[in-house]
Amino acid sequence: NLEVGIVGLPNVGKSTLFNAITKAGAEAANYPFCTIEPNVGVVDVPDPRLQVLSDMNQARKIVPASIRFVDIAGLVKGAAQGEGLGNKFLSHIRQVDAVAQVVRCFKDENITHVEGGIDPIRDIEIINTELCLADLESVEKRMERLQKLAKSGDKKAREELDLLNRVKEVLGEALPARRVEMTEDELLLVRDLNLLTLKPTLFVANVAEDEVATADVENQYVQKVKEYAAHEKAEVIVVSAKVESEIAELDETDAKDFLAELGLTESGLDKLIKASFKLLGLITFLTAGVQEVHAWTITNGTKAPAAGGKIHSDIERGFIRAEIVSYDDLIAAGSQNAAREKGQVRLEGKEYIMKDGDVTYFRFNV
Ligand code: GDP
């Protein structure tokens, strides 16, 4: 299951956003260290296609794709040295697929900023420094081991050492390992180090509730974050955590009205989910029958048998063919049978690369 870790300095709005995610409503207190254990929230990935398919098939239930958010609170200056409960948090980040870093772009005299005034770039750099220090430690540990092997003439170890030296140099400048140009093979070499600064990263610019519709172009802090993110190969989304927490209290219709009043077409949470999907190169294929309509998450480039494996390992092992119709074709035809008559249900083999919105039926031997 896809997992995104939420990090950020204290008092930037992480808990507020996270509470909106879980709708749990735990207290967001106005002081650092208020949340200690990492919390997990699971949300459905919004996908209007599911209801349409459900209606078409008179399906009994809908199973949307989901995404897990882990609230990794307490990352502060000195975390890599074990100050402020840091190391524990860092080890939690190692397990996630992507990192969403919340940065404060809202002004509010009543809410103290742990580092003084509002300065999202300084905040990002503080967090990055901690992540880099932690990565530096992992890299150095590995290098020590490799050095012994390299001395005894191990060529592979030599190559890896060269690569790690490059990574170390970048980390030493407090820059993320993402900045190191690496080939696919090199990426494989460092993969099991689970470097924090190699994870896909998204900046969540948290803005005041009254500027949520305009901040994307007008808020000067947001512009700075965007400039910064461009160098980092990172994405930026604009949300107001306050607004999200209010939306979380409303039912679907009221939430839509509320968004419209604010001049928005989608919630920050939906933006966050979509951006996370994009960041990780994920797509969705669908299965639709009377029992259920189900959305399945795969990485872009996944072949048909592996996609079937998401449903059951038997499907991958005994894969024969996949019967596939694109969602758009299916809707235009009106039903599976009509699509079949029009020749739009294709039989695809082992090498077929799945596309987003493929409505799929797998044939397999047991
Ligand atoms: P955390 O320490 O990063 O988890 O931050 P919290 O979520 O606890 O937020 C710190 C304070 O900022 C709380 O008093 C929140 O109500 C407030 N806050 C969070 N997001 C916003 C926002 O979008 N606008 C305003 N005005 N206040 C916010």
From TrEMBL:
Gene Ontology MF term list: ATP binding; ATP hydrolysis activity; GTP binding; metal ion binding; ribosomal large subunit binding
Domain OBG-type G: from-to ranges: 2-259
Gene Ontology cellular component annotations, sorted alphabetically: cytoplasm
Question: Which Pfam families does this one have?
Answer: MMR_HSR1, YchF-GTPase_C
Q: Which PROSITE patterns match?
A: G_OBG (PS51710)
Where do the annotations place ATP binding? Answer: N11, V12, G13, K14, S15, T16
Keyword line: ATP-binding, Magnesium, Metal-binding, Nucleotide-binding
This chain's function reads: ATPase that binds to both the 70S ribosome and the 50S ribosomal subunit in a nucleotide-independent manner.
- Xref: PANTHER family: OBG GTPASE FAMILY, OBG-TYPE G DOMAIN-CONTAINING PROTEIN
Instruction: Name the family.
Output: Belongs to the TRAFAC class OBG-HflX-like GTPase superfamily. OBG GTPase family. YchF/OLA1 subfamily.
What this protein is called in its record is Ribosome-binding ATPase YchF
User: Which gene is annotated as encoding this protein in its UniProt record?
Assistant: ychF
